[in-house]
Amino acid sequence: MSTVVHGRYVGLNGIKGLAIIAIVLYHTQQQLLPGGFYGVDVFFTVSGFLIGISLLRSLFDTGSLHLERYITKRAARLYPALFFMIPIMVSVGWLWDHDILVSIRNQVITVLLGCYNWYAIAGGQSYFDQMNPQIFRHLWFIGVLMQFYVIVPLIVWLMWRIQRAVSIAVPLALAAISGTLMWALYKPGADPTRVYFGTDTHSVGLMLGVALAWMVVRYEQRHPRLPRIIRTVPYPDGTSVPVALPKVPQPLRIRIWRAIAPVLAFVSLILLFAFTIAGKQNDFAFRGGIVIASMLAVVLIAGTICEDSWMQDLMVFRPLAGLGKYSYGIYLWHWPLWIVSLAVAPHLMPSRGPWPLIMTAVLTAIAVTASWILVERPAGVRSALFVILPIRNTTVGHIVRAVIVDLLLVASLFGCVQGVTHAPTKTAMQQELEAQAQRLEAEQQRTGDLLRGGVPEPPQPPTPKFTMPTGDQITAVGDSVMLASSQGLSDVFPGIQVDASVSRSLIAGASIIRDDAASGALRQWVFVGLGTNTAANTGQLDTIYNQIGSDRIMVLINAHGDRSWIAPTNQVLADYANSHKNNVILVDWDAAAAANPQVLGSDGIHPKAGSDLYAQTIKQTISDWIAANH
């Protein structure tokens, strides 16, 4: 049923390589691969399969799980690389960017205890809201995996004890329960982190992998591999050559399976590609999409490892298999290095370009290579202790390697302690936004601009004056990007009325504009900057447009950031402005921010304090619009 080479299934590294590509692109270029998160479910399925195979073979061959060996191997696989990566990245944060150290102590503790996913759920952290990125947030995956490693011996032992056709029902039932919980606990329109991070809700792939492992092991038990070399042919010179007899004909059902399995695997691969390209974090994903992706991963694995499967030729492609072989290290390192690169690259290379991505790729390659040579391979071949203290069968190379590791650990642990000790409670951007909000509120109270139900301003002339507006002619409603830019707006447009807040959506902004219009406080020019947090559609813009009225000018400010909804939202804004040229203006903040990354904070979204680029971009756009005979 399957092909094994030197204890490893042919093609699995290639499958893991494809999955890690999807995950990395999702984390770094989400607008290009918005469904890349499905790669996690492929990984879960492969992991469930491999662990299930290992434990079930041990049970069938020896009657024991050999838990002491199992625990040692799992710990040696996971922890050395973590102990190498965590202090180094915390030290980097201490030396360069304190923003990534917010809540770092709790992150480190829960990662090492294997429960970071539940800490993130309890703390309200959002995997899908990356305004305040955390360098270890991606390790929720490791938490789920560690918890699975704890419970899976019991699951396979129960299956082995039953040893009937119904045994496979155990992981299948658990998979069904997990998928049902994800469906039931998911709330449309709300943040899906609870169901995405939860071990109870995101174990479909793991359990389906165990079910596939049961099928493979049971097949191996019923059809043991017989040695094909059964005799030798002597030659006149006295030498002999082993000769293999033809394979024993297989039953029809086996031959049919081997014929169709690669085809099914290839179709599954195409469908998974479609999921990663067209998928979104929407109702479909959490109410069936993840389950379907896990089932496709099972078919992909089964059809690839099948004996004589032509899919193996695709999956043994060396670059792809190499990525799969080192996928654990790539997963550990790529996200924190991406966060650091976003903060560092604009200062090193202020010109526009894919510099953060290039920097991340280079640094990840270096870090993964160092981790594999210095830590992971020695721990896997020898022991975790051998990594730092080679005391048996040592060579000069072993000693040199251990000295390098020890020096790196001592230095990074010192930096890690400093980073944890001096970690801020809030990021610099969060502090700036809070300060801007307080200043804005004080200004509003002083001037009375936004007092609901107060004395309304005199009605403005019905015919707009197409000259550069002054601040007392402008109402601005926006999200945290406008809030971060509120001082610049006040400097460029003195007297402007600004109402901006963190995490504000287009729907919430529409209600503010409606209230302003009803109270008579809405001014002649209305700036709308609400594209950062949610997707926009024409109906929502029509609502705001009708509330503003055709006698006012609506200035739409698009969004900048690496979020799957931003590019479509910006296109909707552009199309709307193009269809309402007489009184709707589009400000391309996305282009301005991309051309001047040095003015952005470490999150790559919000302008830094003191920057007036946002306001100047609006002013220049209005000036160009007026110059075009409006």
Chain-wise SSE layout:
Blueprint: E1 4-5, E2 8-9, H1 12-28, H2 38-62, H3 67-95, H4 104-113, H5 116-122, H6 140-162, H7 169-185, H8 193-197, H9 204-222, E3 229-234, E4 240-244, H10 252-278, H11 283-305, H12 311-315, H13 318-325, H14 327-348, H15 355-381, H16 384-388, H17 396-421, H18 428-447, E5 474-478, H19 480-484, H20 486-492, E6 497-500, H21 506-519, E7 525-529, H22 538-548, E8 553-557, H23 566-579, E9 584-587, H24 589-595, H25 613-627
Parallel strand pairs: 5-6, 5-7, 7-8, 8-9
Antiparallel strand pairs: 1-2, 3-4
Helix pairs in contact: 1-2, 1-13, 1-14, 2-6, 2-9, 2-11, 3-14, 3-15, 3-17, 5-6, 7-9, 7-11, 9-11, 10-11, 14-15, 20-25, 21-22
Please tell me what the overall shape is: globular
Task: Count up the helices.
Answer: 25
> Can you give the helix content as a percent range?
55-70%
What's the story with the biggest beta sheet? 5 strands, parallel
Stretches where pLDDT is under 50 for at least 5 consecutive residues are: 226-230, 449-459
Tell me how many strands there are.
9
Radius of gyration: 29 Å
Mean pLDDT: 87
Structural class determined from secondary elements:
alpha/beta
How many domains is the backbone divided into? Answer: 2
What's the N-to-C terminus distance?
Answer: 73 Å
GO molecular function, one term: acyltransferase activity, transferring groups other than amino-acyl groups
InterPro entries: Acyl_transf_3_dom, Acyltransferase_3
Protein name: Acyltransferase
Domain Acyltransferase: 10-374
